[in-house]
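Weekly modeling sync, notes
Attendees: S.R. (lead), two postdocs, one rotation student

Agenda item 3: backlog of single-chain predictions. S.R. asked that every request posted to the team notebook include the full sequence so nobody has to chase files. The rotation student volunteered to paste the first one in as an example of the format we agreed on. Action items at the bottom.

Example entry:
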Amino acid sequence: MALRIERVAMQARERERLYATGRAGPAPSRLAGFLDWLGNASLAALLLLFAFAAAAAVWLRLIGRSGQAGPELVWIVVAALALGTVWASARAGWRARDVRLRRERVFGPSWRDAEAGEVEEEHYDFLEAASVREAETGTLIHLLRVDERRCLVVFDEESFRLVEQGGDPAATQWRPRTRAVLRRAPRSRRVLSLRFGGEALTSEPSQALGWATPGWEWDGKIWELEWPEIARRLAGAD
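Predicted structure, as returned to the notebook:
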């Protein structure tokens, strides 16, 4: 069988890795948050103070007390400060909620995978391989044929490391092999590990053809396309 998928228990290190998704990095500064809130409160209070003062001046003119503000002035100041504080607090709450919802949309599937505690273990027996050089960096991407309609996209990590170190990505010695076990988180579809075995698969790298290639940002993606069509595209045929 070219591809067999099993649901198996998640390993502790895989769970930790998923829980850590989106939570790495320095904690937000409380001082910066307070200063931002104080600035918003002050600005809102100042604007309200001007608006209330203008409205009070019009009202006093209408009742014949122009230029005779009394207790109203105290209430104007108090109302402006109170409403400015409420506005700044509400704005901070809205911002925190938006950040939380945005993080949930982006990282929530990984966190729910960690809570579920299962992974999909994909067992592959590959038939052949094709290799592509990424147009801008020259790094290698391998297309490993699963059957007539599917192939697995695998990044050549060694060639990527060579580029990061200022080396030649064509010098990579890594080769995909005929068998592989890929562990994938079911909801986020995140690849947790990929181990190869069996005999090495070799191919002459082609140049990537932009639209004609799958989404290279998806390492571990299953590309569904007839294998002859993949070969035709990578050969640059019309």
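Discussion: group reviewed the output briefly. The mean pLDDT is 81.
Action items: rotation student to repeat for the remaining queue; S.R. to check formatting next week.
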